[in-house]
Amino acid sequence: MRLPHPFIQLPLRFDVEALRREVLAFAPDDWRPHPQGHPGNSALPLVAVGGDPGNDGVAGPMAPTPHLLRSPYLRQVMAALGAPLGRSRLMKLDARAEATPHVDTNYYWLDRVRVHVPVITRPEVEFQCGGASVHMAAGECWIFDTWRLHNVLNHTPDERIHLVVDTIGSADFDALVAHGDALPRFVPCDAQAEPRLVFERENFPLVMAPAEVRRLWQRWLAELRAPADAAALAVLAGQFATYLAEWDALWSTHGTNASGHAPYAAAGAQLAGQVAPLEGRVQLANGIDLSRLLRHTLVPALCTPNLATTTAHVPDLGQVRSPPAAAAPRTRFDRPIIVVAAPRSGSTLLFETLARSAEVYTVGNESHREFETIEALTPAAHGFDSNRLDASDATPAAVAQLHANFLAALRDRDDRAPPADGPLRLLEKTPKNALRIEFLERAFPGALYVHLHRSVEANVSSLLDGWRSGRFATYPSLPGWPGPPWSFVLVPGWRALADESLAAIAAAQWRAVQQALVADLAAIAPARRISVTYEELCADPQATIARICAFAGVRHDAEAAVELKLSRHTLTPPDPDKWRRNEAELAPHLDALRALDAQVRNAFGLAGAAAPNHQETQRLPSQPAPSPKPAAAPPADAPFASMFTNNLPAILRQLRTSLAISTYQAGRLIIARADENGVNTHFLTFAKPMGMTGDGSRLMLGTQNAIQEFRNVPAVSARLDPPNRHDAVYVLRNTHVTGNIDIHEMGLGARGECWYVNTLFSCLCTLDREFSFVPRWRPRFVSALAPEDRCHLNGLAMADGRPRWLTALGETDTHQGWRANKKDGGIVLDYDSGEIVARGLSMPHSPRWYRGKLWFLESGRGSLATLDPRTGRVETVARVPGFTRGLDFVDRVAFIGLSQLRETNAFTDIPVTDELSERACGVWLVDIETGATLAFLKFSGSVQEIFAVQALPGIAFPEMLDTGALLDTTYTLPDEALREVRLPGR
């Protein structure tokens, strides 16, 4: 709700000890993970739809949960507000966690306030809202403006718990707000009291009246950020006027009768699809995009027919379910193509190859967001039983919102949005869909299914490896799950696996998915499904893809396979015999699984499995030659894509250079190298890779808790496939564990020593074998060596083999004090004198001494600039379309890293977010003599932020090894010892 101030304290105080006793009496199993999976956030429901603690929705009559019924003082606290109670919860924030910056845009919160009563907290806990910040003390009562960007930061080693109550308010409540500066009234704990609680019963319209639709539209128009994109606003207004006319006609014909539910849903979905291409062009003053508001706030609330059957009287507190859906309305989706397969079966390879057809549209990755931002389709809405959805889940409202979500995100292979109207071909792939076929039949009538099956040994082994890696967690805080973060699909019966081995869990997942496919996919008419094997795809990709495209009725783009060779995707097949490394663990399960494998193949007319050795050694003729280990692609739920200007390969060849690019946000190190007429981007997985430094013989990489040292061993190139293709092979040689100190930029000294910025402790360090880190320097204004990121020291410029200049985001000496003035509080420091040589900069990063000048990136302005350290004079050389971070030079070319910046991260309210409606992620090449952009490499999908860019001059096609068989048999020895080595057979 929009308030006149970011925070208002209400004149109420509560008995902290009584609150603590009741809150601490709840069991760990009573707490549930955040509905969107935000790490470190959990909740305990007190008031919920139908009184069901498993229902995290906001639409429907509210009632107390069993948790509230056994908490007398919590009821007294809530009664003191004097207002109807909406969804209410205890909200827990783990130690050193944050709530994630966001604006509450759901229809439910447009006219509701959120009341906070802190129960367990410490003075360091900080609540931020709209640029203001307060600490809410235990026992106090606060409301805040949910229409502004807000967040909670728990800097402490302890949990933070608040009572959070949503309410529409009342006259009594408004009086509390109006007298917020009065002496607080103490509400004691009365063991005999039984206050009267009033719960809201009406919160969403069954069908929104035209007058309310217009009210919301006018309200948002009044809050537009100036200056607005006049052309885009005119298009939006025209589309919305047409929609309002249609809504008036539907309302006059149907009112709230069930006969109108399907047309209402179809009209909303059409509006969402029409305004989607304008996203990013018209924003409100709080930074929220108007197109997104229409699609994600208005459309879901327009028609909610499931409310007609929702009841607050649920004696057994069971789950409130919607009735089976009526026939789905006509949509723009013409025979959607849905790939169904078990996770880790090769479906990403198949999907990305099919996506090269010019006739299909995709969301660019897996559709977790499209499905699970709809509360009714989340596992939480089903008691976390599984990812299974059946026909009863396909309500008109859920289907309409799902269609709108897809339409808003769809792009073709050239990253173009679909036209405003007319049929389109959707290509969709998410392993969870193997458990949703019954739902998909209702949601996408006439859909075509491409079924991919992989040999059981290889598939289950890959699932096991994925669990071990920790990179594929889908539900990090699954209620009632004592094991590692739950990975991949959530299958029925998962609770029974709590004490099982990872091999048993992987086997159970594969079994459940195959059983669902046999039961549900076999019921689909044969004319609407096709089954292929991963082995077929690897052995003859052209023929397999051609067969699938002929079945789906889309043009087989012969260039797709050729493009794959030069694609920015990593599709290298597994190492030979990889599955056999897990053979002993899988052995107890394989006999039963092989029987099911045979059943699946028989049901869908698939050939028998090829020998695992054979299928593992196949590779697509169209893809890059494999390295000794697979190039680590992003997790299955986070694919990536990229594009580059036509001249980039030629520039890299002319400079004879390649690039190493780190992205801690995506957990990848990217090696970019010219390859024939394209650019090959080789992705490797690391935990939070950030700063790096290196030369032709060594590459140092800072990760989440260590610095890893790679040495160039060129002789290994002869052992790669194809031999001698790589002119440098960086092999992991040493790992120095520093602890999680937020390593930023790094540099190599004249004596080979490694310098690095320790941002958490606000100091510059060097490596030492005995210690985690050795502090060598810190800014004069930082009074102590404390793990508090006091000034966000980040950048390091080396000159003549030693540190020379550093950058920081603030001249501050308090815990994350730099955040308060990040817009223009940045500074550049002289290492020798300790003096500040420049102030007033917007988030400076990446200082570099090059060609007798000090260069740096003023990230908050999206610029490359020079600085005269003697005068402090700054000259902007070039502006580029993103948050600049990561810089290196070769000849007259500057390689600049660009980040999109998510709207919900710490980097808001800076010029680049205000001035650029669209921000890119990638590497821009700028001529330092003219400031002109020469070329770029642009990322999309999972890669949204770049940290470091390291040029490798003189190296055209490098490789890196940090694991795998070749690393096990690569040795470097002193020359004397090497002369004594005798290889077998010699």
The CATH architecture name of the largest domain reads: 3-Layer(aba) Sandwich
**Biggest β-sheet strands, sense, barrel:** 8 strands, antiparallel
Secondary structural class: alpha+beta
Describe the global form: globular
Question: How many domain units?
Answer: 4
How far is the first residue's CA from the last residue's CA?
80 Å
- Give the C-alpha Rg: 29 Å
Residues in helix, %: 10-25%
Which percent band covers the strand fraction?
A: 25-35%
Q: Would you report the number of β strands?
A: 46
CATH class of the largest domain: Alpha Beta
Mean pLDDT: 84
The number of helices is 23
The CATH homologous superfamily name of the largest domain equals P-loop containing nucleotide triphosphate hydrolases
Q: What ranges have pLDDT less than 50 throughout 5 or more consecutive residues? A: 311-330, 558-574, 609-638
**CATH third-level topology of the largest domain:** Rossmann fold
